C-alpha cells in the first residue's frame, strides 16, 4: 500500500477486493452513506447484510426489542449501517454467537481471563420474548444511572446513544487462590476509528458531571488530580474515562452482584492511527513515545484495564475446541483476517 494511507483507507480498499459472496449472493456495493454513493458501502437494498447471515435476524431482533439504535444505521437507525468498516457490526459479528452459549464464551475468554470458571447469565437483560437470559449483552449502560448523566442530559436513558455505554458486557465466576467472586467486564470495541484533537472539556456542565467519581477515594485512577482530569477530555481518553468510572461505580454498588468490574479494550493491531495518535497535549507531554493504550495502563489501577487485539480474539476463537459453527469461523477469517 502507498505511504500515508490510514488503516481505514486500507480496509476500504481491501473490502472492494473481497468476493461479494462473502456477504450474500446477489449483494452489491456502491451504497449511499451520508448522502454520497460509496464503493465500500453495501447498496441500500441489502438490509442487514453487514452482519453474518446466520446471526442477522436474531441480532436485529435483540437490538430492536431493547430500543438500541445501530450506529449510522439505515431506516432511522433500526437496521445496521451499510458501511463495511462499521465498528458496531464488527463487534456483533465476533461476539453475538457467544451471547447464548456460556460454554463457548467461557472457553474463548478464558484465554484472556485465566481465572475464569464459568460465564454467568444476565437476567437483567432478558426480554419477555426471550427463552433464556443471555451470557453477553450489547450497549450496556447499567441497571442505574451510575454517572448521573440523566441529570445533565435531561432525557430518558437509552442504550447505545447519548449515555455512556459499554459496547459489550459479560460477567463470570472467577476462582483465584481458592476464593471465588463474580467479575463483570465492560467492553470497548474499536475497528477503524481514529480521532482528532478536540477538547470536550470546554463544556463546563459535562466537565462537572464526572468530577466526583474521578476524585473518589480509592477509585480506579492511580493519582487523580485536576491536571490529569483536564487532560482526559480528548477522545478516545474521554470514552475510556467514562467507561472506567462507570465500572468503578458499578463495583462499589455491586452491579449484578459483581465484586470486581474491569474494562476490556479490543482493537486491531494494525490500526496504528488509533493506537499511536495521542490527542491530549498534556498526556503526550507526560508520556512521550507511548501510545494511547500504554498510557491508559499507567493511569488506572492495574487489574481494572486489559487491552487485547481483534487478532488475539480471532485466534482464541479459531483454536477453540468448542467451536462447532465452522462457517462462522471462516467468515471471520475472510472478513477480518488481516
Overview of this protein structure:
- By secondary structure, this protein is of the alpha/beta class.
- The chain has a domain at 102-319.
- The protein contains 15 helices and eight strands.
- The strands form two sheets. Strands 3, 4, 5, 6, 7 and 8 form a six-stranded mixed beta sheet that branches.
- Strand 1 and strand 2 (36-38) form a beta hairpin.
- Helix 14 (310-318) packs antiparallel against helix 15.
- The longest helix has 16 residues, at 237-252.
- The chain is globular and about 60 Å long.
- It starts with 6 loop residues before the first helix and ends with a helix.
- The mean pLDDT is 93.
Main sheet, how many strands, which sense, barrel? 6 strands, mixed
Distance between the termini: 14 Å
Order of helices and strands: HEEHHHHEEHEEHHHHEHHHEHH
Strand content: 15-25%
The class by helix and strand makeup works out as alpha/beta
Number of strands: 8
Rg of Cα set: 20 Å
Secondary structure: helix percent = 25-40%
- State the helix count: 15
The rough form would be described as globular
Provide the residue-averaged pLDDT.
Answer: 93
| pLDDT < 50 stretches | none
Amino acid at each position: 500500500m502507498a505511504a500515508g494511507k490510514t488503516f481505514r483507507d486500507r480496509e476500504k480498499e481491501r473490502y472492494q477486493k473481497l468476493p461479494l459472496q462473502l456477504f450474500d449472493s446477489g449483494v452489491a456495493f456502491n451504497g449511499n452513506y451520508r448522502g454520497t454513493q460509496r464503493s465500500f458501502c453495501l447498496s441500500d437494498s441489502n438490509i442487514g447484510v453487514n452482519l453474518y447471515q446466520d446471526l442477522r435476524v436474531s441480532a436485529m431482533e435483540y437490538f430492536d426489542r431493547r430500543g438500541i439504535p445501530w450506529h449510522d444505521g439505515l431506516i432511522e437507525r433500526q437496521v445496521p449501517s451499510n458501511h463495511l468498516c462499521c465498528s458496531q457490526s464488527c463487534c456483533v459479528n465476533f461476539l453475538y454467537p457467544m451471547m447464548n452459549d456460556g460454554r463457548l464464551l467461557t472457553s474463548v475468554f478464558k484465554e484472556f481471563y485465566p481465572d475464569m470458571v464459568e460465564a454467568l447469565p444476565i437476567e437483567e437483560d432478558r426480554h419477555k420474548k426471550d427463552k433464556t437470559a443471555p451470557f453477553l449483552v450489547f450497549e450496556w449502560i447499567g441497571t442505574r444511572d451510575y454517572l448521573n448523566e440523566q441529570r445533565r442530559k435531561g432525557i430518558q436513558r437509552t442504550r447505545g446513544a447519548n449515555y455512556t455505554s459499554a459496547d459489550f458486557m459479560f460477567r463470570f465466576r472467577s476462582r483465584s487462590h481458592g476464593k471465588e467472586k463474580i467479575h463483570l467486564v465492560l467492553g470497548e470495541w474499536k475497528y477503524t476509528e481514529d480521532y482528532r484533537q478536540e477538547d470536550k472539556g470546554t463544556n463546563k456542565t459535562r466537565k462537572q458531571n464526572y468530577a466526583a467519581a474521578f476524585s473518589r477515594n480509592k477509585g480506579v485512577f492511580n493519582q487523580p488530580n485536576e491536571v490529569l482530569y483536564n487532560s482526559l477530555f480528548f477522545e478516545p481518553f474521554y470514552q475510556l474515562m467514562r467507561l472506567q468510572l462507570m465500572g468503578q461505580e458499578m463495583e462499589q454498588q455491586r452491579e449484578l452482584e459483581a465484586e470486581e468490574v474491569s474494562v476490556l479494550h479490543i482493537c486491531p493491531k494494525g490500526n496504528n492511527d488509533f493506537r499511536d495518535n495521542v490527542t491530549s497535549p498534556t498526556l503526550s507531554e507526560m508520556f512521550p513515545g507511548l501510545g494511547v493504550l500504554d498510557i491508559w495502563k499507567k493511569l488506572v489501577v492495574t487489574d481494572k484495564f486489559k487491552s487485547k487485539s481483534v487478532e488475539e480474539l480471532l485466534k482464541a476463537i479459531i483454536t477453540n475446541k468448542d467451536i462447532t459453527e465452522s462457517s462462522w469461523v471462516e467468515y471471520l477469517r475472510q472478513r477480518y483476517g488481516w
